[in-house]
Amino acid sequence: MGTKTGIFYGSTLGTTEAVATQIGEKLGVGAADIHNVADSDPSAVQAYDTLLLGSSTWGSGELQDDWCNFIDRLKEMDLAGKTVALFGCGDSAGYSDTFCDAIGLLHDSLAASGCRFIGACDPSGYTFDSSIALQEGRFVGLPIDENNESHLTAERIDRWTEQLKTELS
Q: How far, in Å, CA of 67 to CA of 125, rounded?
């Protein structure tokens, strides 16, 4: 990809971790550059040009717990010159009104940090009622629904990682 890429994720049940690993494999990001935010210091992002940030959505549209302190410290950093792509897991049937809200929360938390966002996704093909990750007619990152649409995950990751490669070139 030409730039140093780090993947940072928060995962309670392992789903977002598995998605982070799949994305890393598609982009050639080694295991040493895939970080669980529960075990990482936010300053670790400084080693990377491109950041892929992933969180599952919990409760009534909240970030995964391990992100809470991490994102508070991250949004205070100057991320000018960094490129950020977001991904997340949600349940479009059980939580259709807050589907993948965590992606939107990460985006909105970092909007003033100076970073450049890439990886927005077309919402067609997704079934949900609302999401704060949907902004200006597109998801601000890659939504994954392993609960109801796991048969689409590999294809969605393939399409998104190819899009990232194009947007980074």
A: 28
- For 94, other C-beta atoms within 10 Å of its C-beta total 11
Tell me the C-alpha to C-alpha distance, in Å, between residue 115 and each of 38, 46, 105, 134: 22, 12, 15, 19
- Let me know: does 138 contact 119? Beta carbons within 8 Å: no
Task: Give the integer Cα–Cα distance in Å for 125 and 123.
Answer: 6
Three-class SS state of 72: helix
How do residues 23-66 score in pLDDT, each as one tens digit? 999 999 999 999 999 999 999 999 999 999 999 999 899 999 99
- Residue 166 dihedral angles phi and psi, to the nearest 5°: -65, -45
CA 31 to chain centre: 17
Provide the pLDDT for residue 3: 80
Whether the model pTM is above 0.90: yes
Which has the closest alpha carbon to 11: 34, 30, 43?
Answer: 34
Neighbours of 30 (CB within 10 A): 10
Q: Is the CA virtual torsion 91, 140, 119, 168 positive or negative?
A: negative
Strand (E) or helix (H) holding 74: helix 67-74
Instruction: Please say whether the beta carbons of 133 and 139 come within 8 A.
Output: yes
